[in-house]
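Follow-up to my post from last week.
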Amino acid sequence: MTLKTVHTPLLSVDGLCTTFGSGDVSIPAVRDVGFSVSKGEILGLVGESGSGKSVTLRSILGLSRRYGDTTGSVLWKGENLVSKNEADMRRIRGGEIAMIFQEPMTSLNPLLTVGVQIDETLKSHTGLTATERKARAIEMLDLVGIPAARSRLGEYPHQFSGGMRQRVMIAIALAARPKLLLADEPTTALDVTIQAQILDLILSLAQDFDMGVILVTHDLGVVAQTCDQVAVMYAGRIVEQGAVREVLRTPQHPYTVGLMRSVPENVPPRTPLYSIPGTPPSLLSLPAGCAFAPRCPQRTDLCAQSRPLLATETGQRAVACFNQVKNRGGAAA
Amino acid sequence: MTDLTLASGPKAAQRPSRFQMALKKPGFMAGAAIIGASTILALFPQVFAPHDPNFIDYLAVRQPPSWQHPFGTDLLGRDTFSRVIWAYSVNMQMAVLATVFALTIGVIVGALVGYYRGIADMIFGRVVDAIITFPFLVLVIAVVAVLGPGLINMYIAITLVGWVYYARLMRAEVISQMSNDYASAGIVMGYSDLRIIFRHLLPNAMTPIVVYWMTDMALAILLGSSLGYLGLGAQPPQAEWGVLIAEGRNFITTAWWLSLMPGIAIVLTGLGFSLIGDGLADLLRPRG
Amino acid sequence: MSDAVLEIRDVNLAFQGKRSVLDVLANRPSRDVHALNGVSLDLKRGETLGVVGESGCGKSTLARCIVRLHEPTGGEVLFQGRDVFEPAERRDRTYNRRVQMMFQDPYSSLNPRMTTRQILSEALTVHEMCTEDEVPSMLSGLMDLVQLPQDALDKYPHEFSGGQRQRIAIARALAVEPEVLIADELVSALDVSVQAQIVNLLLDLQERLGLTILFVAHDLRLVRHVSNRVAVIYLGRIVEIGDSETLFANPSHPYSQALLSAAPSLDPDEKGKKIHLGGELPSPMDIPPGCPFHVRCRHKTPKCTTELPALRPLEGRGTVACHHAEEIANV
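User reply:
Got it. Predicted complex:
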């Protein structure tokens, strides 16, 4: 899984902005975000809470429209999804682009059997007959590794364990054979052993169906083990992006460096961990220059005045920083 | 680890105070205005009532509303406007006295059974089931029938039945608050049970109680006037809205003002309490 | 007496399941949740003992048992040799002072209607940690200790971020000068960069105040970082316990091995080098007979399905509850 950049992108996002709030209070949750995903490629969107990673994902499918304004372009098959109306979006959601969430219990309908929920998706997004749909439903449950799939079609979500529920949700999401899967922290609520199972499942499904995946997570380990590309977000913007191997091996944005060094991996035990001082800024009162400047060990006067731009060539390494970390000094090691 | 500034500082500064939030709620403000005015009328009826409410004037019997008597006069020539105003003190007193004891008992009992659970909770459950099986009004009338009519007995009857509703609400709220770790933290800190219940759980569990209390005060006025109407609550010649309505009931077609004016007073105060209750549900929520 | 501050002896805890009238009539036994099944461990003075396991394995229940939030159905918890669940000891609230707990959820562990000052001074006054006049200086000392600005004293919990709330929770625990801290998923709800700050604070405080810490967490990297010793729990049983570095470098129980290998590494080249653990944690209502792990174990033999392995020390390793630890260790 090395060279995948030759494909034309499946989805390309450019200049995406989402602003919440009304009247005198406006919260810029996502600002000027751009990336692209190719077939079979897994893109990781990583950041801390409030960085805008989940909002970005929701903005792609127009799920944040009800709460705020989205501008920019989300190019899908040559059409801009941002300007599509709700009816068109509904056709795309769950059909060509599917989404899975962190908490399967709240995103599955507790009153409907799993079979009915898969059937619903198939009915609205495919032209399959009733028997074909049933066969597909069994096939999907089988595919996501639910034992005795046929007999479990008639069961309700609460009869499944946490990991199994997440599998059910993936089965529903993938039933209509989407070309792109948006996964919002799909394993955060799960234990590590189950997390490993689910991530492997997503990985193999992406390969088998040649499906693009955008995986939102706060865990750099998950990114390292699953993704091909990664975009690191901070305060609503992408601060660094590129191939996972490059970004994690040689992080160049001071925030990425700090994030990696905060993880207690390969650090002598019981020694102080590196920690980024301070807390992320409130989106209501962002600094004038680089949003990370107040916490940045590398900041200069320039950082406080103007905001560094992210190089926009997609698929390539891009860093939004005036003083990129060049010195490798064991940041990842 | 140098600049540990409070992240939410600027955000918190922009957040309006509860008072400012209240000013932005027209419903709440209208309710507060109605209840404020009602309270003033209840405290100083003599200032606002133009006539003595019990002054009998046989020369002005059953007069329709006029400048002299804005709400007309009754069978004995008493000024209805003054009687409605004087009734404010009785009916507002009902709103408070018929509810505060039930509230106090209910809150304490509910908090204790919610905190300790166990056998006391099971007994409590049976008591609640037994009481709420009967319609509220029927039970109150039964108790008044035993104790005899009159305001004091009416308060006792309403308290005897009404505390259950507060206790049930409080118990549920305390149980749900117990799942918060601050309650566990209190136990781990070695605080006494009473401290945990009354210092920690109660303040956090009070919001729905206060909201319900507002509705209940409206209901208490309604109930009090119903009992007055039936002759079980306030006794004539005392000016009380239920009594006033009862006095006018035979003359609905000829002297409509006798029943209509106290009726409007009931609706208005009830509305006021409900509006306040609605607003408080939002205003009292803890921030977080 | 060893240097153990807390001794946990064969603690069992079963939460009674609900029984309907029909169950009683049919004489069906209630379906109890067996959260802890014979846990024994010593907490030595000044050490950090990490407790890891998957959710539902009983690690939080153990923590809550120690601070008397749950009462064990069997076994004992000894603090300086005295059983804290003895009726006479139960009334002794100084135990609560000396063994403190910090909780996972920074949004629910502080009373939302009290300021930091009220929260902390309550702890000080209830336990008479100082005189009335000394309270302000104690409070400002506590703020310094957990590295919060002084103006934090007059704010309400909702005005703080998650990390700051955990600092207040730590200050509350430290206000009563405890000897033992039980940290139940203290940093799990926090962002990575804030996690590091809190972990550093905890390590620093432990050094300065000579605290003994039981660190319960599901994040293995964190547990490895802060602990001297580690206990791995599976279905309410310790399956492996030992020196942290030894255990993490050479896990001996097949479950420890799988758990460690499932934790996603930051190194992209590790991709695909995992031990796959099939299946899920069985329900604590129906614990499998024999070794509770055998249903998911790659190395299981007939013996494992019938006989419960005891914890036994292994040469050069920790103490392991596995019939085949020797063979597996050499794999």
